[in-house]
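Input record, target 12 of the design panel.
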C-alpha cells in the first residue's frame, strides 16, 4: 500500500511538473511576442520621430537669412560683415520702439489698448525682406518689410504687407 501511495504521489508530482512547465512555456512565449511587438513599435516610432525632426530642421532653415548664402553674399559684396550686419538691422528695427508720438513710426496700426505698439519679433528672410511681429499687449499683427541700406549706412524700410489679428 505504501508503494501505491508513493506511485500516486510520483505520478501526481510528475503531472504537476509537466503542467507547470507547459504553463511557464506559454507565459514566456506570450511575453516574448509582446516584447517583440513593443520593440517593433518602438523602432517605428523612433523612425517617425526622426522624420519629423528632419522636417522641422528643414523648416527651421527655410527662409532664414543666416542660412541663405546668396543673401549673405549680396551684403558682403557691398562691404558689410554679416556678423555685424544682422544685429545692425535688428537694432535699427528695435530702436523704432522708442518713439514719442502716438503712432509707431513703422507699424501702420494705432494702439487700441492705450499702450504703445512695439516690434517684438524679427526674422530676416533674405537680403531684401524682413518679417516682423508687433503688439501692444492686447492686439498683435505681422508685417512684411522690404529693407535697404545706402552707402552711408542709412536704413530704409518699406511696408510690403501687414495684418492685424483680432483679439480672442
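The sequence produced for target 12 reads:
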Amino acid at each position: 500500500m505504501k508503494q501505491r501511495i508513493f506511485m500516486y504521489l510520483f505520478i501526481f508530482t510528475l503531472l504537476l511538473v509537466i503542467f507547470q512547465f507547459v504553463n511557464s512555456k506559454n507565459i514566456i512565449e506570450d511575453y516574448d511576442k509582446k516584447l517583440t511587438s513593443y520593440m517593433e513599435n518602438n523602432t517605428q516610432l523612433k523612425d517617425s520621430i526622426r522624420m519629423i525632426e528632419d522636417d522641422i530642421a528643414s523648416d527651421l532653415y527655410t527662409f532664414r537669412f543666416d542660412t541663405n548664402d546668396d543673401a549673405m553674399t549680396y551684403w558682403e559684396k557691398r562691404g558689410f560683415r554679416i556678423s555685424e550686419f544682422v544685429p545692425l538691422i535688428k537694432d535699427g528695427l528695435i530702436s523704432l520702439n522708442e518713439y514719442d508720438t502716438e503712432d509707431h513710426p513703422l507699424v501702420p496700426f494705432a494702439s487700441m489698448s492705450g499702450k504703445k505698439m512695439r516690434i517684438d519679433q524679427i526674422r530676416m528672410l533674405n537680403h531684401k525682406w524682413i518679417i516682423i511681429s508687433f503688439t501692444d499687449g492686447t492686439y498683435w499683427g505681422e508685417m512684411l518689410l522690404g529693407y535697404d541700406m545706402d552707402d552711408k549706412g542709412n536704413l530704409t524700410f518699406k511696408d510690403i504687407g501687414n495684418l492685424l489679428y483680432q483679439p480672442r
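The beta strands are 118-124, 129-135, 140-149, 155-164.
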